[in-house]
Amino acid sequence: MALPPGLPVRRAALRLLDAVFRRGETLEQAEGAALSDIRKAPDRALAKAIAGETLRWLTDLDAAIDSATKQRLPEDAKGRMVLRLMLAQAWRLDTPPHAVIATGLPLLAGGPRRLAHGVFSALVKEGAAGLPQVPTLPERVTERWGPDKAAAIAPGLAFPPELDLALKDPAETTTRAVAMGGISLAPGHIRLPRGAAVESLADFKAGDWWVQDLAAQIPARLLGAGEGRSALDLCAAPGGKTMQLAAAGWKVTALDMSKRRLDLLKDNLKRTGLKASPVRADALTWEPKHRFDAILIDAPCTATGTCRRHPDVLHRIGKGQIAEMAELQRALAARAAEWLNPGGVLVYAVCSLEAEEGEEQAAWIDAELGLSPAPITPEELPAGLAPTSEGWLRTHPGMLAERGGLDGFFVARWVKN
Predict the structure, then answer these.
(1) Is residue 346 classed exposed, middle or buried when 0-12, 13-18 and 19+ CB atoms within 10 A define those classes?
(2) Identified catalytic residue from 235, 301, 307, 351
(3) Helices 78-92 + 97-104 axis angle, to 10
(4) Higher confidence at residue 401 or residue 276?
(5) In a domain, 258, yes or no
(6) For the chain: N or C, fewer Cβ within 10 A?
(7) Final residue of a domain: which of 125, 143, 174?
(8) pLDDT tens digits, residue range 284-293?
(9) Cα(169)–Cα(188) distance, integer angstroms
(10) Which residues are paired to 252 by β-bridges?
(11) What confidence tens digit (pLDDT) does each residue in 25-80 have?
């Protein structure tokens, strides 16, 4: 008997989710093995979309499943996971119910197919309410962030993000935004509708822009024009901030310990024609040959601020990972402070929503590293964003939601006396 068309894609989506929940991998880490037998780009994209929407709406999908079963399915039961996939397709990807059933039930060969069919039919074919407008965040995330913060962030997670570009020449912002059919939320920034194929966009090969979330563009902007001065981009790969600094006239040393990621940085520099000095080294043991006028630490972190594009972080990250990252971040900040020239500027940034990696780190730097705070001003930020009373910046996915939102970042700045 022939397999239903589309079944391999659903199996791949199931493997992606299994890697997240059973092995704690990110969706990106899981792609290699999970999608190994999926060759066509649209099929690979569909598998990732099914897994992503399942993770984005997991709490609400589980609530729906529980409402239609007399006995609660265990969290790790295959029947529950397949039902999550099936409902996510019907409610979020507008897949016809008959196609969902045809490609979903075979995933449960030898398992509770009748149960899954009955639950799915009760919820979808018989007109259940479906999903809320805004996803319900996992309980452990709500407990960690607090209900008010979680409620503010949730609206920004309802949809995958649109595509943000950073321009090599900010003077071209208006003309390029019009030509590409996008909008701009800041000089040097263009936002395009999601789903755009990056390599096919105008001037990709010419290297006039690169992909970079609006929030991720802010830290390098806070260093201003380089005018030939020296800057260190710490943990630099894959190179978005390095390219920003180079385009702004800084003489950039780009440090990263990952060969694979540093190769991506080199490829990006080659495509854009921008100049920097890539260095492969561990920042905790590396010793620079000279001091720097500016240092940007885009520190390794839990990356919970990227949850609108990587919803797996909502389900993988816990207190242990946060504590581990916080220790590393302090070690990097302490070393970076030693490498600054007098009058040099340090910018610390993390794409994390955790206070331990953001606000608490800034307070520690204030108290321990002998640097003077250099408060961020409203004029330095995109319209709609404002610094905190301390002069720091905190963004989250619920901000600017009416214009597509942005990643969660924490950014702060100091000057060396």
Answers:
(1) buried
(2) 351
(3) 160
(4) 276
(5) yes
(6) N
(7) 125
(8) 999 999 999 9
(9) 7
(10) 231
(11) 999 999 999 999 999 999 999 999 999 999 999 999 999 999 999 889 988 899 99
Measured CA angle at 410 (ends 409, 415), to 5 deg: 135
**What's the mean pLDDT in 350-377?**
97
CA distance 354 to 321: 11
- Confidence check: pLDDT of 1 > 60: no
Asked whether residue 198 falls in the same domain as residue 112, the answer is no
Percent of the chain having pLDDT more than 70?
99
Residue 155 lies in a domain: no
What CATH number corresponds to the domain at position 281? 3.40.50.150
The number of folded domains in the chain is 3
Alpha helices in 157-312 (DSSP H): 173-180, 214-221, 240-247, 259-272
**What residues pair up with 233 in beta bridges, in sequence order?**
254, 296
Residue with tokens 């024609």: 273
Assess whether pLDDT exceeds 90 at residue 127.
no
DSSP 153-183: HGGGGSS---EEEEES-GGGHHHHHHHHT-B
Count helices and strands in the chain by DSSP H and E runs: 16, 11
pLDDT digits (tens, 9 = 90+) for 5-20: 899 999 999 999 999 9
Provide the CATH number for the domain around residue 17. 1.10.940.10
Per residue, what are the HEC states of 80-102? HHHHHHHHHHHHHCCCCHHHHHH
351 has catalytic annotation: yes
CA 317 – CA 331 distance, rounded (Å): 21
pLDDT of residue 141: 94
